[in-house]
Design a protein that fits this description.
Elements (H helix, E strand, L loop, with lengths): L1 H17 L12 E2 L8 E3 L6 E5 L5 E8 L2 E9 L6 E5 L6 E12 L2 E20 L1 H4 L8 H6 L7 E6 L14 E6 L3 H4 L9 H14 L3 E7 L11 H6 L23 H7 L9 E5 L12 H19 L10 E4 L12 H8 L15 E4 L19 H15 L12 E6 L5 E6 L4 E2 L7 E7 L2 E6 L2 E4 L3 E5 L6 E7 L13 E2 L10 E4 L3
Parallel strand pairs: 2-8, 8-11, 8-12, 9-11, 12-13, 13-14
Antiparallel strand pairs: 1-3, 3-6, 4-5, 4-7, 7-8, 9-10, 15-16, 16-21, 17-23, 18-19, 18-22, 20-21, 22-24
Helix pairs in contact: 5-10
The protein binds 2-acetamido-2-deoxy-beta-D-glucopyranose (6 copies).
One 2-acetamido-2-deoxy-beta-D-glucopyranose (NAG) binds next to helix 8.
Length: about 525
């Protein structure tokens, strides 16, 4: 029914336009959009994948999906007058394939067509952020074993957006580093900070093991970039940030574009018409010393804005509150002044310590503060254990995006109580705990007397299956607050004090007031 209606509209429009059009070279610019190509994965049911391209104004465009000799689907549209583009929403498709897809333009009895081959339907995830997302499989631990597994995953397809800056929002990508490809050791390990993103790949691989249908991974990341570079002016405005960047503090060798919206314009905006399942994000290091205390606004606003934009751009096909996963900052050896890293970790949760929460619905987080890597050849800010990061992220995706009932975050404090003698502070966690390591300094209390408060260590004491007591007898005053893992490098590799015993997920860092 909808096909007939739009075909009729297209025919009418065609007649109107033919009256005055010159023809000539109508086929030259007829093509799919830059990122629609061979081997791609299109988003599967229950939503429809959006497909678009360019044509000659006045052209009728027919998009067909075929398998062997059979036509599976046919959509008809026309080239829009203002933009010279056409767009169709495919019917929801079951996961699988391969299909071939042809777009054909008919103008004045002339036909031009383009076919793309080996198209699959599955879940499409966008991976974005800075260098820890960009780090390729060749840079991580066990790189060669990981690369060798590539051929076992022919139904995961990978794509990398090229590094481009733009002052205005672009409609299409102007550079592609890796067009849609089957994974191979060469393209998983192309080079340092190129492709393929290890976190993105491993996340997709873990999901593929569970879902057993095609996964499309689109990586669009640039090292050394603040969140403002990836944010539209709308979301910056929501946090009172102007569209001009302030002077950027010197951070590291790994610095990328920092102008506000400069990568949103070029590396995200062109993707808005793509139907997605969800997004994963690894960024925040570059906000440690840049608008740090605005991150509790910029990050939730950014998520909300991307959600609106992708929903709108895909004509409502990408879920309005699509699942959004992110990695909480890991560690760095470089001097951290002013608790910059712990503050970003906290702001990444909108200052609540866990996600999803009211400000960040349908999100999931991988805690990474226990995955430090002192000897990383890429600097300690680039830890090489990306397997655990991606594994923890995929648990969150399974819970939040796929509705599985499984634990995806570590123990959170549910009740904190100062015992009557004021010598012990009892923490009740929301799930079972395993004390991996005793630590006398990682819990700290704010101890106040005569209007002065000081953070002092609260050594760990006894524990039971869900509770831990802390010794607070060294405070000769009032205990007003408690914090956990509030430092850049809170523990050694997988040696934080508290984990969940079955999922091995670490307790996230927190800071909280103690009611008197
Ligand atoms: C796609 O087209 C190619 C080339 O014509 C053909 O070999 C292949 O079998 C087609 N694939 C499908 C799924 O129809
Ligand atoms: C990547 O970095 C490592 C460590 O610094 C270095 O040994 C290797 O040669 C680099 N690879 C490329 C392709 O530049
Ligand atoms: C963000 O954190 C800063 C510093 O703690 C605080 O002053 C501010 O009120 C917070 N903003 C929001 C929106 O939570
Ligand atoms: C992509 O979506 C945006 C927002 O809905 C729209 O303005 C733009 O025209 C779409 N692109 C095409 C090719 O239709
Ligand atoms: C690397 O491989 C070894 C041996 O199989 C394994 O014990 C280790 O956990 C792997 N490292 C990571 C980060 O996956
Ligand atoms: C730990 O438990 C033992 C035995 O129940 C008790 O004697 C001791 O006082 C407790 N210590 C702390 C710090 O809770």
């Amino acid at each position: 029914m909808t096909v007939v209606t739009s075909a009729l509209r297209a025919l009418l429009l065609l007649r109107l336009l033919l009256a005055g059009s010159g023809g000539g070279g109508a086929g030259v610019n007829f093509r799919f959009a830059s990122y629609i190509g061979d081997h791609m994965v299109l988003q599967k049911e229950p939503v429809g994948a959006v497909v678009w391209g360019y044509g000659k104004i006045g052209g009728i465009v027919m998009v067909t999906l075929h398998q062997a000799q059979e036509t599976i689907m046919k959509k008809i549209t026309y080239v829009k007058e203002q933009s010279g583009t056409w767009i169709v929403v495919l019917d929801p498709m079951k996961p699988g394939g391969p299909y071939n897809m042809t777009a054909e333009q008919i103008i004045k009895k002339e036909r031009y067509s383009q076919t793309i081959y080996d198209v699959l339907f599955g879940d499409v995830w966008l991976c974005s952020g800075q260098s820890n997302m960009e780090m390729s499989v060749s840079q991580i631990f066990n790189a060669s074993e990981e690369e060798a597994k590539a051929f076992s995953y022919p139904f995961i397809r990978i794509f990398t957006v090229g590094l481009v800056k733009a002052k205005e929002e672009l409609e299409d990508l102007t550079s592609i580093d890796l067009p849609w490809s089957l994974p191979s050791p060469e393209n998983l390990g192309h080079g340092n900070f190129t492709y393929y993103s290890a976190v993105c790949w491993l996340f997709g691989r873990y999901l593929s093991d569970i879902l057993k249908y095609p996964i499309g991974l689109v990586s669009s990341s640039w090292g050394g970039t603040p969140i403002e570079a990836w944010s539209s002016w709308r979301s910056l405005q929501a946090c009172g940030i102007s569209n001009k960047a302030k002077q950027f503090p010197f951070l590291s060798l790994y610095s990328g574009p920092t102008d506000h919206s400069i990568l949103w314009n070029s590396m995200i905006h062109p993707l808005l018409n793509m139907t997605l399942k969800g997004v994963i994000w690894y960024q925040g290091e570059n906000n440690a010393y840049y608008n740090n205390d605005l991150y509790n606004c910029t990050f939730p606003a950014f998520i909300e804005d991307w959600r609106q934009a992708f929903h709108y751009g895909s004509q409502g096909q990408t879920q309005r509150l699509f699942p959004f996963g992110f990695v909480q900052l890991s560690t760095t050896m470089s001097k951290d002044e002013d608790y910059a890293f712990p503050r970003i970790r906290w702001h990444q949760t909108a200052d609540l310590g866990y996600v999803p929460n009211v400000k960040m619905p349908n999100t999931f987080m991988a805690v990474a503060m226990d995955l430090c890597d002192r000897d990383s050849p890429f600097g300690s800010i680039h830890p090489r254990d990306k397997q655990t990061v991606a594994y923890r992220l995929h648990l969150g995706a399974r819970a939040i995006a796929y509705g599985e009932m499984l634990p995806f975050q570590g123990p959170l404090p549910e009740k904190i109580e100062l015992l009557a003698d004021k010598e012990l502070l009892k923490i009740e966690y929301h799930q079972k705990i395993q004390v991996q390591k005793e630590d006398d300094k990682i819990y700290e209390i704010s101890c106040c007397n005569d209007h002065q408060c000081k953070w002092i260590p609260a050594p760990m004491g006894n524990s039971s299956s869900q509770t831990l007591s802390l010794k607070v007898d060294s405070c000769h005053g009032t205990v007003t607050a408690l914090r956990y893992a509030w430092s850049t490098w809170p523990c050694e590799y997988k040696q934080c004090p508290i984990y969940n015993p079955s999922s091995a997920l670490p307790a996230p860092p927190f800071i909280t007031v103690i009611p008197s």
